[in-house]
Amino acid sequence: MVKLFRFLKPYRWELFWVLLFLFAQSIAELSLPTLMADVVNNGMMKGDTGYIWKFGAYMLLVALASSFCSIVGSYLSAILGVGLGRDIRDSVFSRVESYSLHEFDQIGTASLINRTTNDVTQVQTLVVMGLRFMVYAPIMCIGGIIMAYSKDQQLTLILAVVLPVMLLMIGSLAKVIVPLFKAMQIKLDRVNLVLRENLTGIRVIRAFNRLESESRRFKDANRDLTDNAIRVNKIMALIQPAMIIIMNLTSLAIIWYGGIRISQNIMQVGDMMAFIQYAMQVMFSIIMVTIMFVMVPRAQASAIRINEVLDIEPGINDPVQSITPGIQKGLVEFQDVTFSYPGAELPAISNITFTASPGEVTAIIGGTGSGKSTMINLIPRFYDVDSGAVLVDGVDVRQMSQKELRAKIGFVPQSPVLFSGTVSENIRYGKPDATGEEITHAAEVAQASEFITAMKDGYEAQIAQGGTNLSGGQKQRLSIARALVRRPGIYILDDSFSALDFKTDARLRAALKKETTTSTVIIIAQRVGTVMDADRIIVLDKGQIVGMGSHKELMDSCVVYREIVSSQLSEEEIA
Hints:
single chain, alpha/beta, ABC transporter transmembrane region fold, Rossmann fold, six-stranded mixed β-sheet, four-stranded antiparallel β-sheet, 19 helices
């Protein structure tokens, strides 16, 4: 929790004024019982009406000042708390954006969402309430004890017995409840994970008639969270009545012994009434602390989870002094590259060496799990190589800034990702300042203009989140258009034609070839027909290059390639 206090620095003046107003409120409330005692002892007991009006007016002014300070303090603490939550949320989001894919895999998407939303809200709520209770309560508690002692030292012994009992109860509560709150956040992650999987995979769930099993899966996770919350609330439910009983017994004890001391003319009635008020202020302060102990453990657990996100150092960072490539545009070189995923026993790819030059189409083909996508993920530096080097325009990608490197690349992922918004906004995502003509041209090259113009609003037609209102082939073509509008030096197409029919595939490749005459094009494909016309075909098997050359050369020299071709084409087509 302490680590997050650095986010309070921009709000130091708001914090100063909150503390000042809360301190003023505490002083005002501590003075009220003394004024009341004076009114009772010197006014009501002596029948002095003028004295009662005079000090009654003082009490009214003090009460109004206390109310004013309370309102302003609450307002400023709310501003400070909400601002702190906003800044922490921004910092967490920015940190997550700097993660490499390894860090995403390490924490998990569902947990990252929960930490950015629910965990930050827990900390924000604690700050808003804590500034009120954790500042106001100690002042009232300490001040109340001092003022009560000044009224009657003997009666103060009652508080000396009661307060340790209450503090012992709070300590025992914290010891039991803190682990439960930590478990609650983990169980909330689980609910979030199951819910996210169900919402994103609803089509598959319905297609396989798994609604009942998924419903049971969510109910189990939800019940686990609910049972944990019920255990917490049961414990907390015991505390409040116990505190109230202690308060009432304390009041009875004060009245009993105070009445004895009044009968002995040792104490005045007004002083006993003031003592009761101070005792109640002290007791209420302890109850406020108890309420905070409900919030602090959960916020502490949330703060630890937030700090885990902020403390993870991204595995991929820009160099201190980046190198800017020369004039050459789009040259990609792999020099004896080996890469392993964390925890894997064997490398995903090993000893990969090839060059892809501008104006050429380099195709990568191989069986499932052969390392095709892993290879191209190293070019935009989604991961760093274990050994060897990946060079773009003669410069190691680790010596370039990530922004400059990725500005050279038009990337089309294996699973097309679209965002909610219009068609034109999704295409313009590749180039924010793209004109209408550039967007239209990119769509035409990607063979997307036909279905776009057939939509009701054309390029202003709305796309649902994730592109769920489009077919797989339409999403792929929009993803390709998004890369084309950028006009990069390097095009990376990761199995981007898999959802297209053969006719559209052929038209798209023909149009793409005309559009990318000066760029480097790297295509990953499963279809032999997609890669046959490439200038260079790289055949992967078990993470290693087992063949490289044109289609004709590989048919003569590469057994793996011949097997792939024979599995997809008839003898007539091969001939």
